[in-house]
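#struct-pred
JK: can someone run the complex with inosinic acid? inputs below
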Amino acid sequence: MPLVKIHDKSFETYLSEETISNRIDELAAGINKDYAGNRPLFISILNGSFMFAADLFKRLTIEAELCFIKLVSYKGMKSTGKVVTSIGLEEDIFGKDIIIVEDIVDTGKTLHDFLPQLLHQQPKSLKIASLLHKSEATIYPLTIDYVGFDIPNKFVVGYGLDYDGLGRNLKEIYQLV
Ligand code: IMP
Ligand code: MG
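RT: done, structure tokens with the ligand placed:
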């Protein structure tokens, strides 16, 4: 299996393009069923989730809205423990069915800090879809309603996820060697 080098680190393939795609088919099927007759608003958290959000959204057969916000907590390979909103939410979410779209839940800090801000605006419902979950690393307990893959506590890149700005364009997900 060829290694990919990003900055100073080597990464090996962990989830293939096909594995990711098949799993997103399943997640979308679940959402189409659970939200039949409703019109949820998907809130995709930039930057990492853009690719997952696009692939998930394409598979929806229900009516749905999509918007993006930007929360930042990572620098290099570590969470800074501080979550900053750098592009805020413009939509009115009062009375709406909200689905948060994340690339990965690691410590849970990002969503733990952000969810109360959303709940304060009284959506009708609030669920979370995350492609990846490092459940071993999660410090702030969260219910993730739609999880793509539960992965070990190792740094990953690709399919939207970066290591210091690079690697987002990879079609597969790679794990640190
Ligand atoms: P949390 O706040 O610790 O749950 O981290 C959430 C954010 O950190 C994610 O949305 C990612 O942007 C980033 N992150 C966490 N783990 C990784 C990883 O293994 N690779 C790349 N980014 C990560
Ligand atoms: Mg992210």
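RT: quick notes.
The chain has a mean pLDDT of 93.
The radius of gyration is 16 Å.
JK: thanks, will look after standup
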